[in-house]
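Whiteboard transcription, Tuesday session. T.W. wrote the structure tokens on the left side:
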């Protein structure tokens, strides 16, 4: 398999691992808001990738996103992988401002929707026609002080399924991956923005093994492959069984 893949949230954690894994096989467009970290990643991957472009934009600004996408000048896209998101709010619901809520919905839900709208004509020209949205294990399990985060991810998951139904006739496959417990920028062991650390998550899960960003990247690789040609409209939970405990 080969083609052009756009990955958001590519500068850190799961997005970075997906970019690194796919770089051996695909041309990449990497999007994030931190120019420095994107450029560092670009230097690391440049020898692996056929073509590598970076886009620095804050996804909470949909007009800036539109301008960045227009300047890309792609004639086709094979896959869109929406990874970027704002972490859980980590505070009591009644203390959240409307701006906080709006930002979370814009980055976690509206930006992937807007990217999909932009990508439709390009995906039609591509061969893979695959869209993967990174949701959360917390649409399947509770999350203390994470009501808005859960709501943004639930909306993303439902919308994802509906896009699979509406665009299936064009050959589009749209799937959600719902990770949990992965060590990353937003779930670091010392500065977790979830109400637990990766060790606590691991201890509570049935498998009691760490969930790694590479496990998510491996599933992405599979979903982009021809082996997954009949798989669409699904949510794939990667959490060592945590949400079923
Ligand atoms: N780690 C887990 O176990 C876990 C659990 C549930 C869901 N998830 C989901 O998995 C995905 C990847 O998360 P991760 O754990 O790898 O977190 P991460 O390391 O924090 O990566 C998220 C990336 O998205 C970027 N980003 C955030 N807001 C942005 C914005 N407004 N515009 C552009 N880029 C923005 C971040 O940049 P900054 O660093 O500058 O913020 C970061 O590079 C997310 O969708 C997350 O909700 C992860």
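and on the right, the sequence the group agreed on:
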């Amino acid at each position: 398999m080969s083609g052009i893949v756009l990955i958001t949230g590519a500068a850190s954690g799961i997005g970075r691992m997906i970019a690194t894994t796919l770089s051996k096989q695909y041309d990449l467009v990497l999007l994030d808001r931190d120019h420095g970290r994107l450029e560092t990643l670009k230097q690391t991957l440049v020898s692996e990738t056929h073509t590598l472009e970076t886009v620095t934009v804050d996804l909470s600004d949909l007009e800036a996103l539109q301008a960045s996408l227009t300047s890309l000048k792609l004639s086709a896209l094979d896959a869109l992988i929406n990874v970027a998101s704002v972490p859980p709010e980590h505070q009591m619901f009644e203390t959240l401002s409307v701006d906080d809520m709006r930002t979370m919905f814009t980055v976690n839900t509206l930006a992937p929707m807007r990217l999909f709208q932009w990508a439709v004509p390009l995906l039609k020209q591509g061969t893979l026609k695959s869209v993967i949205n990174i949701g959360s294990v917390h649409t399947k399990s509770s999350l203390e002080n994470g009501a808005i985060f859960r709501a943004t991810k639930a909306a993303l998951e439902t919308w994802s399924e509906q896009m699979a139904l509406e665009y299936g006739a064009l050959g589009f496959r749209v799937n959600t991956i719902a990770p949990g417990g992965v060590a990353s920028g937003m779930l670091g062991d010392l500065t977790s923005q979830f109400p637990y650390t990766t060790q606590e998550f691991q201890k509570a899960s049935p498998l009691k093994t760490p969930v790694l960003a590479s496990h998510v990247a491996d599933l992405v690789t599979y979903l982009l492959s021809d082996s997954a040609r009949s798989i669409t409209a699904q949510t794939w939970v990667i959490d060592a069984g945590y949400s079923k405990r």
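Someone added at the bottom: The longest helix spans residues 98-125.
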